[in-house]
Design a protein that fits this description.
With about 575 residues, the protein is an all-alpha fold. It is about 65% helix and about 5% strand. It has a 3-stranded mixed β-sheet with strand order 1-2-3. Helix 5 runs antiparallel to helix 7 and helix 10 packs antiparallel against helix 11. The longest helix has about 35 residues. The chain is elongated and about 95 Å long. It starts with 5 loop residues before the first helix and ends in a 12-residue tail after the last strand.
């Protein structure tokens, strides 16, 4: 029998299909035994599937990613509540035993399976490899219940034992509700979607940088206010960063895994101690003030040790933050990858994305040609150009919901998608509204999507929508027969650069311009491949109307005859 390569074996035990099938197996194990190990193993498998979906849905618009993640959420949460009780029992045993053995100095914390600490967070992620769990660390509840040397520990363990029975019933109900048939169907279809983006891709590095940036902000906030909630949020942020690295960046994970695990474990233990203290206080387990003070001192001491260890590794010019950042995209590459991510997402929704790419090229040529003729957008030019590019690339994503009213669906989808790191939120927010008006009713300042915006923003959106409508009409046949345009400006010379070549006209134009105009002559757009007798001529004639309204001058589209001019605005 031929041997299996290490790479193949690794894929079999780390791929999405492997973990999705493991979920089904572990569901059976938990149904037979609600003990700590089966619960942990099922949470590991679910967490793997959900964290893989969390990363892939940022690049792939397939709605099944979100559906799969949601399907496992309730079961994951119920398992988490039960697992929380197991971890608290473990902590009580260790804290009590360490106090008795050392005369008040607590020993090492309970051995935890990677990051499997209390998971009351919006991400609902869990731990990883079950082999990292110390089987001997599970508390002997019966012994502790019979040992009343510490009445507070005895009382808390009794409460936890009662809650454990309640949570087992909740897990049983969640298992019965879990749709295993649908899950098995996804285990066949979703791995195919995942295979379209190879692990180690620069797109995943960009996504990791996004997670790094979010976590770094949470780090600064936690060190600034030092609250329990701030450190809890920081733990979640580092978890999200770690899971992208773990699932999609094998080379980086090999280098960073130990440090990432250690930092997440430290913050997880801090959170465990915070939850343990909150639970103890809420359950009124302390028989007197002395007992309360003793437990608070124990917990606070262990918590401080972990915070100090975290600070030692994560503060300063040589901190782990800087190590991780050095291995992620830099400079201009960030925006380039953000645009690639945006195109990948749009390509999964737009049935003819090459058309949208051609429209984007024509829209930028038209925009740059207008700038060269002394026209000015109502907002910052760089920002306006970015918005136009995004609107053109994404204007047809709404067709994934159907042809009718797709421009309105595009608005909603772009808004829901958010902005990848490297793109300004304001630019994409504007792009969504511009895409909304690439067809259909003409925009006015009283329109629902525009009426609450500032006047300059309203005007900018209408300007960009006018450019996009005309660019879209130039490829109305979706065949790319018009692929190059250049602007001619009334009695001026042809535009061959970013400044109008007729200096006299340019100076006079600034004195005489009204609403962005340089003269009252027609704006002539010479389009290579255009024919006034062609099938798209009528559409182009209709869609130029909004641009004429914006510019307050006629717009004429004609064939480009002088093909020897190599400059194209926007190229």
């Amino acid at each position: 029998m031929p041997s299996t390569s290490p790479t193949t074996r690794a894929k079999r035990t780390t791929g999405l299909r492997y973990w999705m099938l493991r979920v089904l197996e572990e569901c059976d194990n938990v149904a037979a035994d609600f003990g700590s190990d089966p619960v942990h193993d099922l949470r590991v498998s679910l967490r793997r599937c959900r964290s893989l979906a969390d990363g892939l849905m940022a690049l792939d618009p397939d709605p099944d990613w979100k559906a799969m993640k949601k399907a496992g959420k309730r079961l994951f949460q119920r398992l988490g509540d039960l697992r929380d009780i197991h971890v608290m029992e473990e902590w009580v045993e260790r804290l009590t035993a360490a106090h008795e053995d050392t005369g008040g100095s607590l020993a090492s914390p309970p051995s935890q399976p990677d990051d499997d600490s209390f998971d009351h967070d919006s991400l609902d992620h869990d731990s990883v490899d079950k082999d990292s769990m110390d089987k001997d660390s599970v508390p002997d509840a019966a012994r502790l219940h019979s040992d009343e040397a510490d009445p507070a520990a005895h009382a808390l363990l009794k409460i936890l034992a009662d809650r454990e029975q309640e949570q087992k019933h909740a897990v049983k109900a969640a298992l019965e509700e879990f749709d295993r048939k649908q899950w098995r169907q996804w285990s066949n279809s979703l791995p195919t979607c995942a295979a379209r983006i190879r692990p180690g891709s620069a797109l995943f590095k960009h996504l990791a940088l996004e997670r790094w940036t979010e976590a770094r902000k949470l780090h600064s906030r936690a060190l600034r206010n030092r609250s329990q909630s701030a450190f809890h949020s920081l733990r979640i942020g580092i978890k999200r960063f770690r899971y992208i690295v773990e699932n999609f960046l094998p080379a980086e994970h090999k280098k960073w895994s130990d440090d990432l695990k250690e930092m997440q474990d430290l913050l997880g233990e801090v959170h465990d101690l915070d939850v343990l203290w909150t639970t103890a206080v809420a359950c009124h387990i302390f028989p007197d003030v002395h007992s309360r003070q003793l437990w608070h001192k124990r917990i606070l001491s262990e918590r401080s040790k972990r915070i100090d260890r975290y600070r030692a590794k994560m503060i300063g010019p040589h901190s782990l933050w800087q190590v991780w950042r050095a291995g992620l995209p830099q400079g201009k590459q960030i925006q380039e990858l953000a645009t690639r991510r945006m195109k990948l997402w749009a390509g999964g929704l737009d049935p003819d994305f090459p058309h949208s790419e051609r429209v984007a090229t024509l829209a930028l040529q038209l925009y740059d040609g207008l700038l060269a003729s002394a026209w000015q957008p109502a907002v910052d030019g760089i920002s306006a150009r970015s918005s136009l590019l995004a609107a053109a690339l994404l204007h047809d994503v709404g067709k994934s919901k159907g042809e009718k009213g797709h421009h309105k669906a595009s608005l909603d989808l772009i808004r829901e998608h958010g902005n990848p790191l490297g793109w300004k939120e304001a630019d994409l927010r504007r792009a969504a509204v511009v895409a909304r008006f690439h067809r259909g009713i003409l925009p006015t300042r009283k329109h629902k999507s525009l009426r609450d915006l500032l006047p300059d923003e309203q005007r900018a959106i209408i300007q960009l929508a006018a450019i996009l409508r005309l660019a879209n009409s130039l490829d109305a046949t979706h065949d790319g027969h018009i692929h190059r345009i250049q602007i001619e400006n009334g009695n001026t010379e042809k535009v061959q650069g970013k400044a109008v070549t007729n200096r006299k006209h340019r100076v006079n134009g600034f004195l005489r311009k009204t609403a962005g105009l340089v003269n009252n002559g027609a704006l002539v757009i010479a389009a290579e491949g255009y024919s006034p007798l062609g099938s798209s001529a009528q559409t182009i004639a209709a869609e130029r109307h909004l641009l004429e309204t914006v510019l307050r001058r006629p717009v004429v589209v004609k064939p480009l005859k002088n093909s020897r001019l190599h400059y194209v605005a926007g190229s």
